[in-house]
Write a structure and sequence with these properties.
With about 325 residues, the protein is α+β, with helices and mostly antiparallel strands. The protein has 2 domains: about 1-180 and about 320-330, Ribosomal Protein S5, domain 2, CATH 3.30.230; about 180-315, Alpha-Beta Plaits (2-Layer Sandwich), CATH 3.30.70.890. Helix content is about 35%, strand content about 25%. The chain has 11 helices and 12 strands. The protein has helices spanning about 20-25, 75-80, 105-120, 130-145, 150-160, 180-190, 200-210, 215-235, 240-255, 265-275, 300-310; strands at about 1-15, 30-45, 55, 60-65, 90-95, 160-165, 170-175, 190-195, 280-285, 290-295, 315, 325-330. The strands form 2 sheets. Strands 1, 2, 3, 4, 5, 6, 7 and 12 form an 8-stranded mixed beta sheet that branches. A 4-stranded antiparallel beta sheet has the order 9-10-8-11. The longest helix is centred in the C-terminal third of the chain and has 19 residues, at about 215-235.
Length: about 325
């Protein structure tokens, strides 16, 4: 049995420029941070004693004999990518997560990365992080045919606080934003994560992003400059982190205009209430229209903000610097 632990992520700037529809023709980049909230996937070879070949457990349980019959798209295509449909090997896969799926934290990408990592290990291969990210991106974009960007898989595979660039021969380039321990801690202490209590299918929302990419060129180029500016603020020890929060507000103001389903009245009300409580800025994480709301505020303002948003669950958040990891490995006993 193999158990993988793969982080979820917070994206600060550059979302939308990580879609192939954009970075095939322009520079793409994001500033993001993998967080200490995870998905866990256990995988093992299934003994041949059951009335089915594969068993997959997530929000539902699938017991099937043919990979083509699997409903879960990422599980089906990851198994197909690794040739599990050709080697007659039965598999059992279990999924669990720290945060709800379809909530803007990159859980679907983390699932693909974690499953690919675990099943590759079962087949005797430990993939380097870059390869893990590229192959997971390929599975979701080209095999599952989801309308997803490339940043989530990269953050899940690598972990850390990074400026990630897209395009060129290597497709992705990960540049760590290295901060002194005290500044990283102070930065993290500005973050508030609230669950809006409603989820959505990211691929459906993102379809609007992709469709509008040509007419959003001006806005996306402005958002791209914020990636470099955000990284500069963080790395410059003399910069006031208030600048980062204000930049988040500016980015969210632009993002809301890019497609019709990114926000709604409930989301706007949550964000505005957070601002009244003292938040400098923030954004809805992921493609939009539901999930988690990130607010950025001085630590002394957090109590007032939480009081204003007391009906919402506030989730503590820190960093993950390891990326997708195999945290348990047990070899089957030989006869």
């Amino acid at each position: 049995m193999i158990i993988t632990r793969t982080p979820l992520r917070i994206s600060f700037f550059g979302g939308g420029t990580d879609y192939p529809a954009w970075y095939r023709n322009h520079r793409g980049a994001v500033l993001s941070m993998a967080i200490d909230k995870y998905i866990y996937i256990s995988s093992r070879l299934l003994p041949p004693f059951f009335g089915y070949t594969h068993r997959i457990v997530y929000s539902k349980t699938e017991q099937i004999n043919n990979i083509n019959s699997i409903d879960h798209p990422s599980a089906r295509e990851t198994m197909r990518f690794l040739g599990c449909d050709k080697d007659n090997t039965g598999l059992e896969i279990h999924y669990s997560g720290d945060l709800p799926a379809m909530s803007g934290m990159g859980s679907s990408a983390s699932f693909t990365v974690g499953l690919l990592n675990g099943l590759s290990a079962i087949k005797g291969e430990i993939k380097p992080k870059h390869q893990l990210a590229i192959e997971a991106i390929h599975i979701d974009q080209n095999m599952v045919k989801e309308n997803v960007g490339s940043q989530d898989h990269t953050a899940a595979a690598f972990g850390g606080l990074n400026k990630i660039e897209f395009g060129g021969p290597e497709q992705i380039s990960v540049n760590p934003v290295i901060l002194p321990k005290n500044r990283l801690s102070y930065f993290q202490n500005h973050l508030l994560l609230f669950f809006t209590d409603f989820s959505r299918k990211a691929s459906k929302v993102a379809k609007g992003w992709i469709k509008n990419t040509p007419k959003n060129e001006k806005e996306l180029k402005v958002m791209l400059t914020m990636v470099d500016e955000g990284a500069r603020i963080l790395k410059n020890k003399n910069s006031n982190l208030d600048e980062f929060g204000k930049l988040l507000h500016e980015a969210w103001t632009i993002k809301k205009t890019l497609a019709p389903q990114i926000t709604n009245d409930k989301i706007d009300a949550i964000y505005n209430e957070g601002r009244r409580g003292g938040a400098l800025g923030g954004k809805l994480l992921g493609a939009g229209n539901g999930g988690f709301m990130l607010l950025f505020a001085k630590p002394e303002k957090h109590k007032a903000i939480k009081k204003r948003l007391q009906k919402l669950l506030c989730v503590p958040v820190g960093s993950d610097f390891l990326g997708s990891q195999i945290i348990y490995y047990s070899r089957p006993k030989e006869d």
